[in-house]
Amino acid sequence: PVLDAPLVDREELFVQKLRQCCVLFDFVSDPLSDLKFKEVKRAGLNEMVEYITHNSDVVTESIYPEGVFMFSINLFRTLPPSSNPTGAEFDPEEDEPTLEAAWPHLQLVYEFFLRFLESPDFQPNVAKKYIDQKFVMSLLELFDSEDPRERDFLKTILHRIYGKFLGLRAYVRRQINNIFYSIINGFALPLKEEHKMFLIRVLLPLHKVKSLSVYHPQLAYCVVQFLEKDSSLTEPVIIGLLKFWPKTHSPKEVMFLNELEEILDVIEPSEFLKVQEPLFRQLAKCVSSPHFQVAERALYYWNNEYIMSLISDNAAKILPIMFPALYKNSKSHWNKTIHGLIYNALKLFMEMNQKLFDDCTQQYKAEKQREKYKLKEREDIWSKIELLARQNPQGSIPLFSMETETPTAEDIQLLKRTVESEATQGMKDMRKEKVLTRRKSELPQDVYTIKALEAHKRAEDSQDRR
Predict the structure, then answer these.
(1) Whole-angstrom distance, CA of residue 63 vs CA of residue 55
(2) At a CB cut-off of 8 Å and minimum separation 6, what does 288 contact?
(3) Angle between helices 63-75 and 7-20 (to 10 degrees)
């Protein structure tokens, strides 16, 4: 035993025992072989667990590479194929987990490494040379083990590594978060009620978080995956997004517009009918935004062929909602790029249905006339009040005016001519730029996400282990 050796020899003896425990034995094809040596290894592992737990100054610099190597050689292995069904066929209450045959040794290896990490002598600055991203990735791959005891140890060890190695925290978070892609993609149809609740009560409220930009591409992808699985979820998702729509945070509003276009790329026409009115009321507000990036991103929707086909089929509902915002901002928005995009949108509406466009123009003009008449009435009343106030020798009020802009017939004709010319020029300019498009179910082009997904090649990861 190590404790029986002189103090000067204990470190060397400890290293020798660690190396002795790197010998692997067969517990599967021939469980009765090498029983004596298996017991020797088990006793050695037990001794090291006790030694590192109850003694100080044990974890010296020479122990780090030996301890990590012993753990790696014993644990980082190719897992056997799953003996239980995966996906929808798997029932955790009926299908018994397959237990690891070598658990008598593996359990002690896990316990040793856990005590190693928790030792008061443990120095992360020394250990980081050996416990790196490659080590963490190998550790994460072991979560595919069917033995729940092993997964429980892995959870605890990963938590300890996350707590002690600050430089690995972002990497661990990325690898764990990326699992959600394959989990949702593997959900069986029809979706279970608990999965729908996960979307509505967990994923959607994540849009409220201030740090949304950190994970928004991944979150949007997960939401779209749900909608591709079950189109009936489209209405609650879009209504939820509109509910959480940012009011004063323009960069976040652009993110919402990006996600909304991804959703519209996969929306069914029947589902579009349910949400078109609240959806385009919000888009009208975005077009009117003084922040040009918000207005620009909303107007890029008119470059999306599928969205334009949906708009064309429902122009009678959508154009009356959008026309006032488009007309007003074609004249009043401060940014010239927005003018060109608005003229392009108006031109497309005009080409869809000339009569409807003319009707909306006349309705807008009539509405402005009514507003002008109401304001004139109000102004007359205030004028009378002002006159009475002036007749009061003890007080005076400042003059004020209430004016509103009403489009004249010349304005309307000028609008049509301008729409034609500006839209043509605007389209020429936009062809020089990259068109914002998205393929169905395309992963966000995030470098860390791509690397993580390329590195994780296990087939089971694309299944839902429910």
Answers:
(1) 14
(2) 295, 325, 328, 329
(3) 20
In residues, how long is the chain?
A: 466
Judge whether 228 and 265 are in contact, CB under 8 Å. no
Report the phi/psi class of residue 86: left, alpha or beta, with left for phi > 0 and alpha for psi in -120 to 50. beta
* Closest among 78, 79, 74 to 113, alpha carbons compared: 74
Provide the 10 A C-beta neighbour count for residue 147: 19
> Smallest Cα–Cα separation from 240: which of 281, 190, 275?
275
d(CA 348, CA 210): 37
Q: Residue with structure tokens 């031109």? A: 347
Tokens of 183: 């989990």
**pLDDT tens track for 182-196:** 677 777 888 889 889
CA 337/CA 296 separation, integer angstroms: 8
What is the C-alpha separation between 334 and 330, in angstroms, rounded? Answer: 10
Residue 438 has pLDDT above 50, yes or no: no
Give the position of tokens 């429910």.
466
Which SS3 state, helix, strand or coil, does residue 379 take? helix
Residues 372-391, mean pLDDT to the nearest whole number: 87
